């Protein structure tokens, strides 16, 4: 799109009666100007050797009308501005050479109007020719005098902040003069009024402020913004036309100025030479830095010089012989400028507001399209708006139910919902990770694996055995985590599975000992490269409440560790544990409490039966003893009477015979009752175990419930409450209940894949209870098999031990 262009340079010769025909000649194509100076050392006008110069330019305007000058110099630049190209036209030359005449012309004579009013006229004419676009025109008029900025339109009413001291500001949108009034002009006439106002102010200022107008630069800027009338077109173009009437280029030495005048002259030359430097730098592709900031003129024109804009320079010269050296100087400037190339480009922008509106429109259309698709697919009530908190909470609850198995599938509704489902998976995962870590840190001291000194010290203290897998077991029920030997580390690498599998794998270990592999798991969670060691007894105490605590008693108080107190609690004091326990038994703990009570009833029943049997045995024994006594009396009496034998058979009387029969029967009874008692004792033992397990479970569950209900942070609480199916550190029980008796493998699988990572005590106890029940059940079954299967309590026969995990 961008093509390199040269800076266009023209020479305009001011008409004079004394034109130096001998010295100034024009090429036939009107594109060159030759200067010839007669060597006249006597007059000393020119001292250098050279006497002939030829300057190639884009056009020589000699005796050219204002009309012709405009068409040649400005017409194209202005036309291109309407297409989005910035344009700058500058008049350069010594004072009186006709710069102002060229740029502004005479304000009294329409025919002699200059480039400025003609440019405004062309702009408005072109706007009329483009009804497809809404084009706005604004103008500003800036004067730079002795490096000070003046707003030549400041006398007009302006909505902007006119009190702001003027300064040149660079912004992402481009360069602008802060404090300079920019006036909207809807009509050609208004634009002219502004121009005349500016011209008047320029003249007045030159008198009142002692400003020599020949020492100042004047920049009249026309700002154009063109929006397509078609609303779908979000692009719009902006452009600026800078019409610059530069200060006189005459050199200080020539003017013979002194004092203030001299100072001013120096400034002028400086800023003109800076202008030249900047334009040259812009034209040099290798130059990275363009010295725009050296003076106000170049700084203010930063985005309008060379570079990406159309640039035209008109060198105004005298045709008089007396001004030849200044003429030469101006021509040199012009020819230097001619060598410079620029790359004009369109200033295309995007109308953000229009873009938003168009996107909104499209969004509505697409939603309508979706609605049609939904109704065709019989999908009612599907919304595609961003989700609110309630909807997100519902998804969170769904995910939890899905994780615990109570929900088989999460229905796919739309993309937003799918994304939210994944998001909630992440939320739940991170909550659990945090919980796990927090709970580990509450219970254990973490030691860096690489910290051999500490490990050695710990080994010496006996907390970790030689193999590194003994733990601080205190009362046979507590447990801790030890150093993981490499052999004990799980081979699985899958991040998630490893976390779940490894931690739950611990539960298959023996009572009171968590697998050393767990230490590794903690690693994989977040306590990277650390080891865990049981550091306090409190964990043991809490996780394994003492046996004499009766679940049904009113004091199931679990010791509150100080660390637990430091745990973030919810506002308000948690209720005392005894009363909370009663509540728990009616609430979440109702089922396990029911089973517990049922087991206890059976136990008591068996105990009662056992004592009744024992009593019966005792009375049978007494009767046996007395019968034996009576028999002995009979025997003694018979012996005293002399024995009576019949063919080798001893004859006894009827009374003695009955006693013998009775004794036999009593002994039989005795044996039967005795067997019953033994069976009952086995049953009692088994039931006692069940009762203990249930009590354990009840207390553990209560602990969790109590924590969840009163001690866990609200953030964690909310999602837990959502459906409550996933519980901190609990194996989803619905999974357990589905286990068949011989499903040990499946159980293991579920543990590894479903169990949330939870080194807290609960899964450990879950697993232990499960294992114990299984073992005890098999044992009891075996012991009953060869005896009296009928004596197994019906409740035991009907249910598998895993059923006792029911809450
Ligand atoms: P500058 O702005 O360069 O100092 P001016 O534009 O003020 O010079 O010109 C000085 C005088 O010469 C003015 O009175 C102006 O009308 C007159 N003049 C300059 N150029 C022309 C021209 N091309 N035709 C007629 N008059 C001119
Ligand atoms: Mg002038």
UniProtKB/TrEMBL annotation:
Q: Does the keyword DNA repair apply?
A: no
Q: Where is the signal peptide?
A: none
- Gene Ontology CC: microtubule; podosome; sperm flagellum; vesicle
Which residue intervals define the domain Kinesin motor in the entry?
Answer: 6-340
What's in the keyword line of the UniProt record? ATP-binding, Cell projection, Cilium, Coiled coil, Cytoplasm, Cytoskeleton, Flagellum, Microtubule, Motor protein, Nucleotide-binding, Phosphoprotein
Region feature Disordered, mapped onto this chain: 511-588, 784-807
List the GO biological process terms: extracellular matrix disassembly; microtubule-based movement; organelle disassembly; regulation of flagellated sperm motility; regulation of podosome assembly
Compositionally biased, Basic and acidic residues: which spans? 537-552, 796-807
Q: Where in the cell is it found?
A: Cytoplasm, Cytoskeleton, Flagellum axoneme
InterPro entries from the UniProt entry: KIF6/9_C, Kinesin-like_fam, Kinesin_motor_CS, Kinesin_motor_dom, Kinesin_motor_dom_sf, P-loop_NTPase
Q: Which residues bind ATP?
A: 93-100
Q: Which PROSITE patterns match?
A: KINESIN_MOTOR_1, KINESIN_MOTOR_2
Recall the GO molecular function terms of this protein's record: ATP binding; identical protein binding; microtubule binding; microtubule motor activity
Role played: Essential for normal male fertility and for progressive motility of spermatozoa.
| Quaternary data | Interacts with HYDIN.
Report what the protein is called. Kinesin-like protein
Query: From what organism does this protein derive?
Result: Phascolarctos cinereus (Koala)
State the organism's lineage. Answer: Eukaryota, Metazoa, Chordata, Craniata, Vertebrata
């Amino acid at each position: 799109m961008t093509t390199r262009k040269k800076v266009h340079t023209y020479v305009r010769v001011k008409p004079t009666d004394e034109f130096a025909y001998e010295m100034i000649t024009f090429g036939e194509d009107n594109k060159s100007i030759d200067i010839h100076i007669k060597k006249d050392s006597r007059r000393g006008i020119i001292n250098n050797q050279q006497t002939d110069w030829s300057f190639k330019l884009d056009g020589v305007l000699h005796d050219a009308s204002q009309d012709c000058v405009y068409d040649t110099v400005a017409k194209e630049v202005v036309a291109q501005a309407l297409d989005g190209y910035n344009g700058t036209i500058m008049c350069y030359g010594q004072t009186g050479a006709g710069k102002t005449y060229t740029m502004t012309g005479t304000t009294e004579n329409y025919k002699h109007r200059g480039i400025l009013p003609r440019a405004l006229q062309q702009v408005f004419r072109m706007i009329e020719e483009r009804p497809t676009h809404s084009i706005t025109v604004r103008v500003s008029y800036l004067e730079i005098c002795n490096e000070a900025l003046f707003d030549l339109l400041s006398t007009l009413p302006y909505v902007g902040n006119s009190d702001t001291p003027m300064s040149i500001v660079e912004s992402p949108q481009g360069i602008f003069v802060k404090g300079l009034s920019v006036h909207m002009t809807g009509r050609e006439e208004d634009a002219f009024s502004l121009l005349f106002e500016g011209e008047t102010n320029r003249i007045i200022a030159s008198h009142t402020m002692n400003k020599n107008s020949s020492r100042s630069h004047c920049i009249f800027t026309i700002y154009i913004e063109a929006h397509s009338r078609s609303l779908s077109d979000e692009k719009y173009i902006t452009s600026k036309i800078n019409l610059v009437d530069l200060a006189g280029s005459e050199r200080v030495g020539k003017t013979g100025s002194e004092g203030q005048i001299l100072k001013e002259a120096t400034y002028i030359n400086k800023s003109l030479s800076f202008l030249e430097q900047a334009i040259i730098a812009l034209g040099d592709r290798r130059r990275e830095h363009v010295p725009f900031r050296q003076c106000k003129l170049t700084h203010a024109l930063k985005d309008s010089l060379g570079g990406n804009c159309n640039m035209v320079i008109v060198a105004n010269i005298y045709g008089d012989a007396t001004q030849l050296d200044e003429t030469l100087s101006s021509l040199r400037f012009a020819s230097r400028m001619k060598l410079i190339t620029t790359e004009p480009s369109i200033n295309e922008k995007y109308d953000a507001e229009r873009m938003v509106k168009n996107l909104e429109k499209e969004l509505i259309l697409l939603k309508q399209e979706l609605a049609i698709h939904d109704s065709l697919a019989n999908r009612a009530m599907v919304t595609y708006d961003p989700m609110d908190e309630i909807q997100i909470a519902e998804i969170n609850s769904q995910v939890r139910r899905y994780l615990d198995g109570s929900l088989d599938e999460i229905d796919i509704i739309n993309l937003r919902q799918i994304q939210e489902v994944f998001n909630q998976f992440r939320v739940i995962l991170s909550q659990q990770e945090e919980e796990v870590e927090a709970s580990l840190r509450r219970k254990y001291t973490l030691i860096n694996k690489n910290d051999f000194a500490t490990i050695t010290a710990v080994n010496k203290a006996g907390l970790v055995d030689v193999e590194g897998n003994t733990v601080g077991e205190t009362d046979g029920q507590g447990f801790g985590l030890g150093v993981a030997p490499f052999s004990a580390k799980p081979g699985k690498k899958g991040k998630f599975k490893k976390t779940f599998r490894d931690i739950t794998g611990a539960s298959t270990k023996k009572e009171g000992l968590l697998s050393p592999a767990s230490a590794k798991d903690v690693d994989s969670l977040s306590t990277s490269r650390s080891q865990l060691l049981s550091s306090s007894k409190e964990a043991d105490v809490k996780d394994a409440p003492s046996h004499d605590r009766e679940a049904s008693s009113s004091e199931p108080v679990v010791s509150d560790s100080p660390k637990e107190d430091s745990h973030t609690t919810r506002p308000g004091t948690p209720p005392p544990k005894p009363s909370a326990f009663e509540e728990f038994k009616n609430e979440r703990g109702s089922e396990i409490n029911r089973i517990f009570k049922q087991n206890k009833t059976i136990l008591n029943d068996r105990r009662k039966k056992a004592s009744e049997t024992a009593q019966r045995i005792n009375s049978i024994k007494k009767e046996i003893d007395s019968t034996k006594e009576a028999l002995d009396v009979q025997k003694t009496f018979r012996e005293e009477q002399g024995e009576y034998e019949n063919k080798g058979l001893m004859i006894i009387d009827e009374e003695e015979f009955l006693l013998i029969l009775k004794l036999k029967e009593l002994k039989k009874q005795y044996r039967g009752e005795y067997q019953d008692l033994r069976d009952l004792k086995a049953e009692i033992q088994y039931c006692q175990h069940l009762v203990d397990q249930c009590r354990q479970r009840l207390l553990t569950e209560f602990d969790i419930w109590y924590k969840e209900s009163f001690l866990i942070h609200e953030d964690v609480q909310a999602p837990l409450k959502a459906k409550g199916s996933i519980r901190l550190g609990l194996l989803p029980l619905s999974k357990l209940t589905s286990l068949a008796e011989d499903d040990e493998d499946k159980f293991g699988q579920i543990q590894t894949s479903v169990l949330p990572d939870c080194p807290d005590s609960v899964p450990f106890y879950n697993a232990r209870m499960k294992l114990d029940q299984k073992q005890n059940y098999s044992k009891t079954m075996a012991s009953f098999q060869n005896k009296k299967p009928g004596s197994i309590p019906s409740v035991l026969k009907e249910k598998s031990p895993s059923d006792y995990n029911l809450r």
